[in-house]
Amino acid sequence: MQYLRISILFSGIVSCLLTIAQIDPKSKTIMDNSWNKFRSIAKMTATIKIKTEGPNIQKAESKVGKAIVSGNKYRITFSTEGREIICDEKAVYSYDKKSNEVTISEYSEDNADFSLNAFYEQYRKEPKGKYVAEEKLPNGTLTDHIELYPPARKKTNVVRVHLWINKNTHLVEQMKVQDRNQNFTTYTFTDIQINGTVSSSDFIFDASKYPNANIVDLR
Fold first, then answer.
1. Higher pLDDT, 70 or 5
2. Taking the complete model, does pTM exceed 0.85, yes or no?
3. Cβ-count burial of 209 within 10 angstroms (0-12 exposed, 13-18 middle, 19+ buried)?
C-alpha cells in the first residue's frame, strides 16, 4: 500500500497543477530554468529517498531506491524491499516480490505516477505558488525553495508542494508534499548523474525476470 500511496501522491501533484494559476516572477524564472535544464537531459539516474511522517503515522517510514529517468519513461527499484516500478510511456508495471505480483496500469501523461517530465509540463500550464527563500540542504547544497499549491476549489488530497531547486544545476533535489491530513512525504534526490547512455532495456518490462509472478492487468 505504501507504494500505491507513492504513485497516488505523484499523480495528485500533477493533477493539482492542472488548473492552478498565479506565481511570482522570480519563482517562474527559476522553474522555467529548471524545466529547460531537465528537458535537455537524455537520461538521469539518482538515488531517491522517500520519507513519510505525520500525525496519522505512528512511526516515520523511510525507503531508499534507485531511479532511472528519460523523458516520461522511468524505472524505480527498491532492492531491499523487493519492489520495482517501470514505465515505458505506454504502461506502468509495478512489481511486488513479497506477493510475487505484477500490476499493469495504462500510462497517461495527465495522470502520471512518477514522470518528472509530466510534472514540469503540468506546472507550466498554470502555475500557482511563491518564492520562499534561498536555503541550504543538510548536505550543504544551496537551493531555491519554492512553494506550489492548488486552488481551494480543486478536489485533491495534496494541499502543498515544496520544491528545493539546486541553484547551480537547476535540478530539483528535494520535494515535500503535504496532504489534507497534515502528513508529509519528502522525496530527496542524491547521486544525480545526467546524460548517460540511454538503453531501451532500462524501461522494458521483461516478464522472464519475474518467473511465476501473478499478472494483474488493469488496462
1. 70
2. no
3. exposed
Helix (H) or strand (E) holding 29: helix 25-39
- At 7, the pLDDT band (50, 70, 90 cuts) reads very low
Number of domains in the chain: 1
Separation CA 190–CA 50 (nearest Å): 12
For the cut 70, the answer to whether the pLDDT of residue 117 exceeds it is no
Cα 82–74–129 angle (5° rounding)? Answer: 110
92: domain CATH number is: 2.50.20.10
Question: Long-range contact list for 158-161, CB < 8 A, 24+ apart?
Answer: 158/9, 158/12, 158/13, 158/15, 158/16, 161/13, 161/16
Q: pLDDT tens digit string along 152-194?
A: 545 667 778 899 999 999 999 998 888 888 889 898 999 999 8
Place of cell 548517460: 196
